[in-house]
Every structure is written in structure tokens, then in C-alpha cells.
Amino acid sequence: MSTSEIDRQWTTRLRRRTLGKLPPEKMLPDTQPSYVASWIYVFGVATLSALFVVIGTGCILAIFGPQWWHISSIGHFVNSLHLWSVEIFFFCMVIHLWGKYFMAAWRGGRAMTWITGMVLFLASIVTALTGYVSQTNFDSQWISTQAKDAINSSGGGAFFNLLNPGQMLMWHIVLLPLILVLLVAIHVLLVRAKGVVPPFEENAGADHV
Amino acid sequence: MGPYLWAALLPLNNPDHYFKWHFIEISAANAIVIVLMVLTFVAALLLPFPGRRRRKDQQ
Amino acid sequence: MSKTKFRPDVDAPVWKGGYSPYDIIKEGAIAVIVIALLTALLAVVFGSPDIPAITIKSWSNAAPLDFATTALSELNGTSLTASYGAPYNVQPASASQALGPLKLEYWVGVHIPINTANDFVVDPLRALPNQPVLDQNLTKWTNASTSTKANWVNHYTKAAATMKFANGKVTVNTTKAGPLPVMINDLTQMARSGALDQALITGDTFYSTDYTQSLLFISDGSYLGDVATKQHLQGDQWGVMNETGSYPGSAWLWLYTFWYQIPPFNASGNGDILVLAVMVLLTVALALMPFIPGLRSIPRRSRVYRLIWREHYRGLKPPS
Predict the structure, then answer these.
(1) Which of A146, A145, A152, A164 is nearest to C86 (CA)?
(2) What is the value of pTM for the model shown?
(3) Subunit contact B2:A98, Cβ cutoff 8 A
(4) CA distances for C8 relative to A202, B45, C172, C290, angstroms
């Protein structure tokens, strides 16, 4: 087998491209620039951690089914964990957004990191909506019958039926988590690949990326 | 509600207090969350981050 | 070789400074533990709300006249669902929301067909076994012409103000409404027994997970909304942000629900699509912030960054 044939293989090209952008030292670094020294930086990893807890508690709820938390006190506790981890998730995400805005963290070719973050914010809101209507209680009834008007007004209600708990639950536990996890992976890998955005230069004429 | 063996210590099932100002109406719970967010953000900006000496040594 | 002009709000300087040790796995592990503990603390202290769902049975027993009035509106086509338009039923384009010339709701059309008179009233009643008087009245209804039906409905509607619920029966002061008094009364009894809850499950299947019809019927009445009002969940109470009880809700939806409180959104029949359009625009603008001059300069001009990177800037100062 000739070298040029191996070079042309999809596997070889993908591996080289991936490792070129994300070598192990960037994937799992052991140093970071010394300007990364503020409590504002913890809110990204805090949001990610909250997402782990959301998914973990969601998995426990999935083990026993959507009615479990109404009839079991342990189930109700797990539901409480799920609710509060979602509150913490949004709490940390918004502070993370504020911090990244004031750092203008899109600078230096990092626009896609910013954009994937915004799409994640939106996807999280839709995931929360499908979660609320999957509670199978009064809150679900109210939220679904009200929010349907907004979704219907765009024409989307013909396909995305908030009044169908079966459909909404499957979006909530299958489709949207997959989308979220994929977007989070891209978002985090972009940060690893490009590095944390450097501070604004306070003097003119600096080299740029 | 189902049988509770493990009820919350301070369940928040009673109606909330609402602050109303012109057309703005916000629950006490949401107001607390928003105030906490702003305070946390400001604290994150102002509080010193540990390890300053270590970073100075690396420069 | 010419140097491209450095744009401070778009480009980033090359970092030529120092690096400090960083344990990313340890940081991640600590973050997960801290967040998990905080979650557990909040769950143990505050729990979570769970107001049980309203059933048609609980609704019709708690408020039988509200149920009977709603049943009439489903039969005479005046309920919210009956007159909704797409995606539930065919109505003139004016029934659907429009964004200027864009009639998205109307153009997408009916995909969840619902005929409230048949689906919510006639068909469920037909399913009841051994009801000779009801069956006679249903046959009378089914065989009547459209004008005769309209005449009966009009008479019943005019007399609806005299509607009473006494000794478990719904009665109305009219003799010209044909089979309607029996139909409305029997539907109320069916509702109060719990049989209507199952009958409305879409598709008449055993394993349906689609509650579209039941939810639409319940929301056409006043009862669901009354419970929501007590919990501050109505649109004009900023309800989108709120949770039942005193729990925090979705504070992050503050801007979405804000528009519903002010003109022109709060008085417009197209309020939902207008608010959606505004929020789509704002969200796209925020997402494309890196490309919007002026807005992308605010971080640099506001100098909040000086707090974040104060140690770095202090380190740059020449020693005095």
C-alpha cells in the first residue's frame, strides 16, 4: 500500500485534521494563560456541571417512568433535584453569558463559540418547555394550553403539538438532549481549540490573531 | 399530592408574594433569583481569585 | 508585507505572557460535586411543586354549570377551539394570526382536525351503552337539517342564562331546543362520572398518549383559567415566568413575557406572532453580536473587563 494512498484515506485525513486542531495537550491541558484568574471563569464549568446533574437526575426519573414522582416520595425528591439543577443550570448559564459578553469573548476567531453558546441557550429553553409539559400535572396542562398559541401562530403547532405529552416527552428525553450534548461538545471543543480569549490590549499596535 | 414520607423542610406551596410597579409584576421567588444572579455576577467580578502568588511566579 | 489593521472588538492580541498550572479534571470534578451538593440542599429544603392535573371529572363536579356552558359552546361553534382555525379546523384566514402579509398559521393549515360538536359532544355521547332516551335524541340530532340544528342551538343559547344545576341535573328554561337539553345534561353526567375523560383521548385507542382533545375542552372552560389566576400564571400576570406556589419559575423568560404586557402586543389579535418575531430578531442579533459594530464595542467601552483582568493589567504596570 503506497503512502499517498494511506494519506488520501478518510480516516487518515480526519485523524490528522482532528489532532491538528485538538492535540492532546489542548484537549486536556495542564496549564492555562495567567490572565485566567477571576471567579467569572467558573460559570462555564458550573453550567456544564449543572447539566450533568440535570441529565443524571433525568435518567433516574426515566428508570421509573413519568408517573413515578407523583406516587413515590423518593421519586418526588428526584424530581426536586431535577427542578433545582435546572434552575442552577440557567442561573450559571446567564452569568456565564454576561461574563463572556463583557470579555467580548468572540474576538480572535471565536465567533462560532459565541454563536454555539447562543444556540445552546435557545435549545435549553425549548428543552425546559418540553420538560414543563411532561410533568403530567396541572402545570403541564396550563403551560401546554397557553404556549400552544405561540407555537401555533408560527405554523409550528401543526407538527409540534404541546398537547401531546407522548410527543413532548420524547422530544424532552431523546431529541433535545442529543442536540444539547452535541452542541455542548462543539462549544467546549471550540474553547479548547482556540484557547480562552486574551484580555483587551490597553496599548495600540499589538499583534493579532 | 402523593404520600410524602420525605417531605421538603420548607415546601413553597403557599401562594407567593408579588411586587407590582406599573405594569411590572414579579414574584418574590423570581425577584430573589434575579437579585442573586446580579449579586453573584458582581461578586465574581470583585472577589480576589486565589493563587495570585503562584501566577506571579510563573510570569 | 502589510499588517492588517487591528480591530480591537473583533481581533484578539497574541498572548505572549506566562502560563500557570491548571488541573482541568480536578476543576471539573470539584464543580460537579459543588453543584450536586447545592442541588441536593435546595431539593431537601424546598422540594418541588406538584399540583394534580384537573380532569374533566373533577372540573364538571366542581363547576357543573361552567362545564355545561362550555359543552354548549363546543356544540354552537363559539368556543375558543371551535373558532380557532388552523391547525384544528378550517376558518377564514382572519381567525389565524398574521405577521403583516405572512399568514404562517393559516398557510400551514389544518393538521390536527377537530370538529368540536362531533368530537367533544355527539361522538362521546354515542359511545354510552343502554341509553334509549339519549339515543333517540342523538338520532333526532343526527337526522336534522343544518338549519334545524342551528334553530335548536339558538334557542338553547338564548335560554342559557336560565341554566341551573340542581339534584344532579342541568336544566334550561326552554322547550324549543329539541334534543339539546338531553344532550347537554347527559354529557355533564358523563363528565361527572369520569367516562368523558377516556372518551376524549384522541383516536379511541387503548394506549394513546395524545391528550389534545381533553386539554382543548378543559381550556375552553373557565375552571382551568381560574386555578391559573389564583397561581398568578395568566399572561397579564407575567405568568410565563411564574411557577405554582412560591417556587421560582423561569426568570430567563422575562424579556419574552415583557412584550405581552405593553402595546401593541397586549391588545393585538396577532400578539403571539408579533412577540415571536421580535424575540427571533433580538435572539439573532445577540447571536450575531460579533458582527454588529457598535454593540460589539460595548464590552471594550464599558471597561467592565478591567475588573475581570485586573491582576493582568496590574502586572503590566512598570514597577515604580
Answers:
(1) A152
(2) 0.94
(3) no
(4) 10, 22, 76, 12
d(CA C203, CA A74): 35
Write the ipTM: 0.94
Q: ∠ CA(A97), CA(C35), CA(A100), 5° rounding?
A: 15
CA dihedral angle for residue C61, residue C63, residue C66, residue C67, rounded to 10 degrees = -10
SS3 C249: coil
Grid cell listed for C155 = 334557542
Residue A190 burial (CB count, 10 A)? 20
Place of cell 355521547: C125
pLDDT tens-digit profile, chain C (320 residues):
556 899 999 999 999 999 999 999 999 999 999 999 999 999 999 999 999 999 999 999 999 999 999 999 999 999 999 999 999 999 999 999 999 999 999 999 999 999 999 999 999 999 999 999 999 999 999 999 999 999 999 999 999 999 999 999 999 999 999 999 999 999 999 999 999 999 998 666 888 889 999 999 999 999 999 999 999 999 999 999 999 999 999 999 999 999 999 999 999 999 999 999 999 999 999 999 999 999 999 999 999 999 999 999 998 776 65
Asked whether the beta carbons of residue A39 and residue B49 sit closer than 8 angstroms, the reply is yes
Hey, how many other C-beta atoms are within 10 angstroms of the C-beta on A65? 10
DSSP reduced 3-state for B58: helix
Which of B 1-59 lie inside 8 A of C, CB atoms?
Answer: 1-2, 7-18, 23-30, 32-34, 37, 45-46, 49, 51-52, 54-56, 58-59
Domain residue extents for chain C = 56-226, 231-287
Q: Which residue in this structure is represented by grid cell 354549570?
A: C65
Give first-to-last CA distance, chain B, whole Å: 60
Contact C38 A88 (CB under 8 A): yes
DSSP letter for each residue of C281-304: HHHHHHHTGGG-TTGGGHHHHHTT
The model's pLDDT over B6-55, given as tens digits with 9 standing for 90+, comes to: 578 888 888 888 999 988 999 999 999 999 999 999 999 999 999 876 66
Q: Which residues of A touch B1 (CB under 8 A)?
A: 70
Q: Give the chain B residue nearest C229 (alpha carbons).
A: B15
| Every domain of chain A and the residues it spans | 39-90, 104-194
